[in-house]
Design a protein that fits this description.
- The protein is α+β, with helices and mostly antiparallel strands.
- The chain contains 13 helices and 14 strands.
- Strands 5-4-14 form a three-stranded antiparallel β-sheet, with no helix packed on it. A three-stranded antiparallel β-sheet has the order 7-11-12, with no helix packed on it. It has a two-stranded antiparallel sheet with strand order 1-8.
- The longest helix is centred in the C-terminal third of the chain and has 15 residues.
- It is globular and about 60 Å long.
- The termini are far apart.
Length: about 325
């Protein structure tokens, strides 16, 4: 998202952003753990509770939110209300590219003992899946340095408002997870918004504050956490008082595809009628960038039906 002079923006407003709107639902670790569990085959309340480690009341609350957001549906077996199953709607299935980018980051930077022997297999070619973001126009892989951002027809201002939610401090589950480390960033709305801001060249506290709408105390806390987890590094530009610039580490830089895929999902389901707030261009081929996820082995575009999880015990 292009940066602008933050001094000209009403502090109660932020630039229109599909990522912000998407994070109103997905910027929540319990919700992401539920979605991962459903993708891994858990469909009933008891299964979801066991795999996620969420408390019953919190799990029930988040399932209701996902149904209200039309990301999940609730079905019953043979018409019985006692045996409810949860499944993804079309809107939920469309999160698959975001899930795959979370998986890519987790394989590189996450905790290996959480994954244990879980792997994704691309059934179309039979190989272990190594998802690769590619340009939909030229089918070539790309990095953030090959992407340009310009304002789109849906650019504008929107209220810096957000829903408050109750969280669970710890998740007591011994189940293996494909995404546990990667969702800790996306699942904290403020951390994800900070990453978005820094991806677009905003490196100082005041600029990040204006871009995210975060209160100073929240922003300080999240910046500290992201630095401690080696996603960001801080570099002082002033000594008295100490003020820092914040830059992406390699670990943080590799998170760009997650933010990008989330933005495109937000554009589709929460964008303005005029169009997306931001347009992306793949500078290598000079075409509008609409990323796809391809199999690193056979180069075919990956769809949910062509992927299975190996090593999974239900």
């Amino acid at each position: 998202m292009p940066s602008s002079d933050s001094s000209s923006i009403d502090p109660n407003m932020i630039k229109t952003c599909s990522i912000w709107r998407a994070l109103e639902i997905l910027g929540d670790t319990p919700i992401l753990l539920i979605l991962e569990s459903i993708w891994m085959g858990s469909t009933r309340f008891t299964q979801l509770r066991e795999r996620t480690g969420l408390q019953k009341a919190l799990l029930s609350n988040r399932l209701s939110r996902l149904i209200k957001a039309d990301i999940l549906r609730k079905d019953s077996d043979n018409g019985s209300s006692k045996h409810r199953q949860y499944g993804l709607t079309g809107k939920g299935v469309d999160l698959f590219p975001t899930v795959l980018t979370l998986y890519v980051w987790e394989r590189k930077w996450g905790t290996a003992d959480m994954r244990r022997n879980l792997e994704l297999r691309h059934e179309s070619c039979g190989a272990v899946l190594k998802p690769v973001p590619v340009c939909g126009a030229c089918k070539q892989s790309f990095g953030l340095d090959e992407v340009s951002f310009v304002e789109g027809p849906g650019i504008g201002l929107m209220p810096a408002s957000y829903s408050r939610r109750r969280n669970q401090v710890s998740f007591q589950s011994d189940q293996p997870s494909l995404l546990r480390g990667s969702v800790e960033i996306l699942g904290d709305r403020w951390s994800a918004l900070i990453m978005r801001a820094i991806f677009t060249g905003l490196n100082r506290f005041d600029g990040i504050t204006a871009d995210t709408g975060a209160a100073p105390a929240i922003l300080s806390d999240r910046l500290k956490t992201l630095v401690e987890s080696e996603v960001l590094k801080s570099v002082p530009y002033q000594q008295n008082p100490v003020r820092n610039d914040y830059f992406l580490t390699k670990k943080g830089f590799d998170y760009y595809s997650v933010i990008m895929m989330l933005m495109l999902w937000g554009d589709k389901y929460y964008g303005a009628a005029e169009g997306p707030p931001v347009l992306l261009t793949h500078t290598t081929c000079a075409q509008r960038l609409i990323p796809e996820i391809a199999c690193g082995h056979c180069k075919e575009t990956v769809c949910p039906q062509s992927v299975t999880i190996t090593g999974l015990k239900n």
